[in-house]
Amino acid sequence: MRINSLLVPLIAGTFFLAACSRRSVNLSYTNAKGEVPQLGNLVFRFNQSMVADSMLNAWDSTEYVSFEPLIKGKFRWEAPDQLVFSPSQPLGPATAYKAKIKKAVLRFSKYDIVKDAGDIEFHTPDLTLDNSQITWIGESGTSALPQVDLFFNYRVNPADLKEKLKFDIDGKDAGYTMITASPDNKISIRLTGIKTEDKDLNAKVTINKGLKPWLINTFAIYNERVDLPELEGPIIMILFFSCFNTFLTRSFQIEIPKFLWCSLVSGL
């Protein structure tokens, strides 16, 4: 019994020394955090050298970092302590990602574990309405109709937008026709039934919440179960225009929580 009682602390001490002998390296920097652009490389920098100079600037298909949802691309050691990932296509629109450092980064180093590499999360910009403008389209003043152009930061399906779009002219529902037929960043809508009278018109355009970016086919193939976030809203635009004014001279946006008011003022 005395021998067994001596072995217990001896074995515990052995495990403790083994744990302490594990060499660790830290992830000291990454730009894969917060909001990132759809186009651009992701950088992972460590506080120690990980590879020899002979491995630098060579593209590698080894999965040093995994991404969820999946991102296709290749890696390159830009410096002994810096790994660069280059996506083979733009990142998904309005998409949240998670990254995980794999043990493959330690393959050519003297280290056993990577510290400070947990909870790597980043996302591409949310769907937003970047700008708007209104012009008169037609051959004469009597046949011209106002056209509203909406500019989004991602391509939007006009059919999806139409389900959530509403126009009010001077407090009454107004008809409209979707001019843009296929997904695009710029969506044009032609207002109908507007009389060419010599007076200013007050139009309210409402985009109810739920609009999503159009999913690029290649991104959908790689990530069939990705559910893109919806546009928070509603978005409400107040348009002031006259039947005899055709050019937008000033525009501005004021953002308040959950509402985006875009006031467009055409020149008089």
Give an overview in words.
It is a single chain. The protein has 268 residues and is mainly β. The protein has 2 domains: 23-123, Immunoglobulin-like; 129-266. It is 12% helix and 45% strand. The strands form 4 sheets. A 6-stranded mixed β-sheet has the order 4-6-7-3-1-9, with no helix packed on it. Strands 14-13-17-18-20-19 form a 6-stranded mixed β-sheet. Strands 2-10-8-5 form a 4-stranded mixed β-sheet, with no helix packed on it. β13 and β14 (172-173) form a beta hairpin. The longest helix is centred in the first third of the chain and has 19 residues, at 2-20. Mean pLDDT is 77; it is low at 14-20, 217-226 and 241-268.
Largest sheet: 6 strands, mixed
Give the class from helix and strand content and strand pairing: mainly beta
Strand neighbour order, sheet with most strands: 4-6-7-3-1-9
Shape: rod-shaped
Q: Tell how many strands the DSSP assignment holds.
A: 20
Mean pLDDT across the residues is 77
Can you write the helix and strand succession as a string?
HEEEEEEEEEEEEHEEEEEHEEE
- The helix count comes to 3
Cα(first) to Cα(last) distance is: 101 Å
What's the quaternary structure here? single chain
**What is the CA-atom radius of gyration, in angstroms?**
28 Å
- Share of β-strand residues: 35-45%
Helix content: 10-25%
The residue ranges in which pLDDT falls below 50 over 5 or more consecutive positions are: 14-20, 217-226, 241-268
